[in-house]
Write a structure and sequence with these properties.
The chain is 77% helix and 2% strand. By secondary structure, the chain is mainly alpha-helical.
């Protein structure tokens, strides 16, 4: 399983498919950070949907790379369907991890530039962690569901734009955790549900 995770991440890095999404992500974070939004929680709230898009796209890139026949071979090599699904989900999380770190840095810069509060805002960091996990799960599910149809691969020109549209449409979910206790609970439940689906679908 460890070998699969290492191979998938190495393959993604060498493919260069991550370059333009990451550049766009960084530019967006710089713009949001420059706004230095008030009050303190707003900086995290504005960055959260961007993090959701980035982490979902990372999950999509990981999952959509493996075609049906190769997926069957991978399951045999890794030692079972469950182990392979967990490894794929772990790959998506690890691919989203750098985006999570960058999002926290950007949000903290924006927050501290418009706040007298010292130290990190752990509540915001925790919510961003949930958003990153949620995004990776969404991307993983889309990679499974949009790349195959009746056992045949769907062309990238059809599946990729559809995945991008779905990700953009759900990006606002990343901000619900900042709407109060009910929002946090909703975000936790959604994240748990999507994560379970991500490690059981495929």
């Amino acid at each position: 399983m460890t070998t699969m995770i290492r191979q998938e991440l190495t393959s993604l890095f060498r493919s260069g498919q991550w370059v333009w999404p990451v550049i766009s992500y960084l530019i967006t974070l710089v713009v949001l950070t420059a706004l230095a939004i008030r009050p303190a929680h707003a900086a995290y709230g504005f960055v959260a949907p961007v993090l959701l898009i980035g982490s979902a796209w990372a999950g999509w890139l990981i999952t959509s790379r493996t075609q049906g026949p190769l997926w069957q071979i991978t399951m045999i090599a890794v030692g079972g369907r469950e182990r392979t699904l967990v490894a794929r989900w772990a790959c998506a999380l690890l691919a989203a991890a750098p985006l999570f770190v960058l999002a926290v840095i950007a949000a903290e810069i924006g927050r501290q530039s418009s706040s007298d509060a010292a130290g990190l805002w752990w509540g915001g960091i925790g919510l961003h962690l949930l958003v990153a996990v949620l995004g990776a799960g969404i991307g993983t599910l889309l990679g499974v569901q949009l790349t195959e149809r009746e056992g045949n691969p769907v062309p990238a020109g059809e599946s990729t734009p559809l995945a991008a549209l779905v990700i953009v449409l759900v990006c606002g979910v990343g901000a619900i955790g900042y709407a109060g206790a009910i929002g946090v609970l909703a975000l936790v439940l959604i994240t748990i549900a999507v994560s379970i689906a991500a490690v059981t679908t495929g």
